[in-house]
Amino acid sequence: MRIEQLEYVVAVGTYGSLRRAGEHLHVSLPALSEAISKLERELGVALLDRHRSGARISYAGRDLLQPIIDVLDSVARLRAAAGDQLAARRLLRVGTVNAGTATLLLPALQAFHAQHRGSTVEIRNLQQDDIYVMLAEGTLDVGLVNLLEGDDVPPELERTPLLAGRPVAVIPASHPLAAQPEVSADELRAERFVAMRAGYLMHRFAHRLFGSNLPAEWYSTDGAEMGKLMVAQGIGIALLPDYSVRGDPLEWAGLIVGRPIAGDRTAVTMSAVRRRQTRTPAVVQDMIRHLQNSAEPGSGPTPNGANEQA
What CATH number has the domain bearing residue 198? Predict the structure, then answer.
């Protein structure tokens, strides 16, 4: 039994139908229906009356609404107490997929510490699925994830878009392909390739781009930072979001460049993700606000360490 399942049942009872509950919660109907079906199987009670015209709360569901609301009220009090403890211990736990750290997370951390002096921020480099699980479990407070167009986060989480971009080929600056305005998938296939390991979004994108005809020489690594270092050392060419390359110290030093992929129009977005809850702790809200400010055009660092001036 999961808390969001109980919240879904209450929403159906409150808004009168599964469809209206989904619109209010911003959760798709299939996901909402499946979550409630799992709860029904666990409780052995039909909570919804399902018809071709839609689904509404059943009589048995209405009888259970008040006990469910009581449970949710208790959970809200527990989360509020936990939020107070989070503020008291001044610890914020952030999980990141590691792309965009230099230009997004580090400036946000500086601003956060200026506001919350004496606070402790724990940064963990994780795969995307691990971030989702730890947020749902409450062992992370904020996650940074990359999403391809059409991707969504689990229904118990909510996201705040930060950066929008596209995948690019990350190439050593001395490589002949770096002189081109864009590179093709066939040109990339002919090179040694530095891939993100399975579980990273760019691993999925690489397989989408190359199909079954993968580069003959293939290296795998964990995270964008090591991938960029491998490119800078001339080990191979990688695929990363453009915002992971733009403003990176290795780009500043003239060691790597990012080039668009010919014919590809894939969109990729970095988002801040947090657990969906009634009361979000203030420190979590502050960190997400600083991430949003850091993501605004012109707010990031420049090679000489100063912000760009308009």
Answer: 3.40.190.10
